[in-house]
């Protein structure tokens, strides 16, 4: 490397370092200056997040986000973009943080930072109550519904990678003929409730969502045991370590004082915040 090339390389490195330094803290600075934290979540995924009878967002993820905001000393404002839009990244300041049960995989870590895992949830399979299936392998060659771009979809397609810390091993219990992807689990449950095999033979979703649908009167039931367990984390875009650290500290405090456990029991009847 000649002297001119070396100087140019050093200058380029300094420019990158300065750019990163200039970006550091910008989200946190804006949030603290405006006292407003914009949080993306789902509006139709009970009991994690849903619109209640007062037309207000409610649920486990919503309560977690509100408590993080309280510990930061800011007001939480919710936005409800589609899951595929959230996971695509390039938020461009439309929201600051996602609290919506995202699995922190290595692929997603190319776009996001994950300040804290706040609970672990089992994924399971639901079938219509009239289904003749008695075991998961009975779904071989069947039509299965899932949420688009989710770990449930990846599992149904035989393409799931759970490389997050705390995720136990799993195996594929069935091989569908077709995987139909939906905007959310509720829409998939709506097709499943029409009848066994009418549009779907099964749905892969979170066990809490399946149980909540059963409580709501959906004529469905869980088939077999949980198919995998996933750690679920708060997500932010790359570039603001200070913001990351503030969120991590808030969630750690929620774990230490029992708030997370209480919220889990409130919404699920089970403490999903620790690995069993």
Summary?
The protein contains nine helices and eleven strands. With 276 residues, it is of the alpha/beta class.
Secondary structure layout:
Blueprint: H1 3-23, H2 26-34, E1 36-40, E2 44-45, E3 49-51, E4 57-58, H3 60-72, E5 75-79, H4 83-88, E6 97-102, E7 112-128, E8 143-147, H5 151-156, E9 178-182, H6 185-192, E10 202-206, H7 207-215, E11 220-237, H8 241-256, H9 259-268
Organism: Rhizobium leucaenae
Family: Belongs to the bacterial solute-binding protein 3 family.
InterPro entries: SBP_3_CS, Solute-binding_3/MltF_N
Question: How does this structure look, described?
Answer:
Residues 36-271 form the Solute-binding protein family 3/N-terminal domain. It is found in: Periplasm. By secondary structure, the protein is of the alpha/beta class. The chain folds into 2 domains: 23-117 and 233-268, Periplasmic binding protein-like II (D-Maltodextrin-Binding Protein, domain 2, 3-Layer(aba) Sandwich), CATH 3.40.190; 121-230, 3-Layer(aba) Sandwich (D-Maltodextrin-Binding Protein, domain 2), CATH 3.40.190. It is built from 9 helices and 11 strands. The chain has helices spanning 3-23, 26-34, 60-72, 83-88, 151-156, 185-192, 207-215, 241-256, 259-268, and strands spanning 36-40, 44-45, 49-51, 57-58, 75-79, 97-102, 112-128, 143-147, 178-182, 202-206, 220-237. It has an 8-stranded mixed beta sheet with strand order 5-1-6-11-7-10-8-9, sandwiched between helices. A hairpin with a 3-residue loop joins strand 2 (44-45) and strand 3 (49-51). The longest helix is centred in the first third of the chain and has 21 residues, at 3-23. The chain is globular. The termini are far apart.
């Amino acid at each position: 490397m000649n002297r001119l090339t070396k100087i140019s390389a050093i200058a380029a490195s300094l420019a990158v370092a300065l750019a990163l330094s200039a970006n550091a803290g910008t989200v946190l600075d804006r949030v603290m200056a405006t006292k407003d934290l914009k949080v993306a979540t789902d509006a139709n995924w009970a009991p994690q997040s849903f619109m209640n009878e007062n037309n207000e967002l409610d649920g486990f993820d919503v309560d977690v986000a509100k408590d993080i905001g309280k510990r930061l000393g800011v007001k939480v404002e919710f936005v409800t973009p589609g899951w595929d839009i959230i996971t695509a990244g390039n938020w461009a300041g439309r929201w600051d943080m996602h609290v919506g049960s995202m699995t922190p995989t290595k692929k997603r870590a190319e776009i996001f930072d994950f300040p804290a895992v706040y609970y672990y949830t089992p994924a399971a399979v639901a079938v219509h109550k009239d289904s003749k299936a008695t075991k998961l392998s009975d779904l071989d060659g069947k039509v299965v519904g899932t949420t688009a771009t989710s770990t449930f979809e990846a599992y149904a397609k035989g393409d799931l990678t759970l490389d997050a810390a705390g995720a136990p091993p799993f195996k594929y219990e069935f091989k569908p003929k077709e995987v139909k992807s939906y905007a959310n689990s509720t829409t998939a449950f709506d097709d499943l409730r029409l009848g066994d095999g009418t549009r779907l033979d099964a749905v892969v979703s979170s066990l809490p969502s399946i149980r909540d649908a059963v409580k709501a009167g959906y004529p469905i039931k869980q088939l077999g045991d949980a198919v995998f367990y996933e750690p679920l984390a708060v997500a932010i875009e790359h570039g603001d370590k200070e913001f990351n650290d503030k969120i991590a500290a808030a969630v750690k405090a929620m774990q230490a004082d029992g708030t997370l456990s209480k919220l889990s029991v409130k919404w699920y009847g089970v403490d999903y915040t620790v690995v069993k």
